[in-house]
Amino acid sequence: MKKFLFTFLILTGFLSYEAIAQKQVNEASLIYDVIATSSDGKSEVASLKGATLQIWVKGNQSRSEMKTSLGIETSIHDNAGGKAVVLKEYSAQKLMITYTSSDWQSSSQTFSQSEFKPVEGSRTINNYVCKEAVAQGSQGTGEVRVWYHPEIQLNNKAYFHAFPGISGLPIQYVLLKSNLRVTYTLRSISYEPIPASKFDWPKSGYRIMTYEENLQLNKGK
Q1: Scanning 4, 46, 120, 171, which has its CA 20 to 30 A from the CA of 72?
Q2: Which domain holds residue 110?
Q3: For position 210, which CATH number holds?
């Protein structure tokens, strides 16, 4: 389940249906509340109770941080250079996975290459009037529904690579796979300046492996 969630967590751009006046944003931080339940919504996943996803974007740099009771998973991505790193901190284990540009593209294929289709009508979520789009993941990896506010657009289209075709700010999105339903809802957005150090990679304290090495490790489990 953690692998499925992270595929979409860090995972972070968006669908162009019509030309509208947009607020173009170069720098912002966003916080999403995360709720994971059974597909029928009757039982909550205890390990993800109180989970949050925070995203920082500054120019071509982006950072996402998923916090749960199990630990923290962080991604730091340089859209200009194409390189990225994923940090996993669970109990006493601290792992750093390095990504080349092609590695990052490969890891984001589940929904990044899917066609998002518009849904009729609108919905107001946390005072944002939202449009809806839906897509099916590749190879039976589930469905994602996105409610986005078309009047705000982050200039960095690759900050959230699950939705590369959507033109607007995601206010809420729901990931569905078999018996799991994960809902992310925007709690707040800030346009305060973000220090460049927020996007620095750690220099020590982590076991380091490449994306390919991590894939081979997971195949052995």
Answers
A1: 171
A2: 2-214
A3: 2.50.20.10
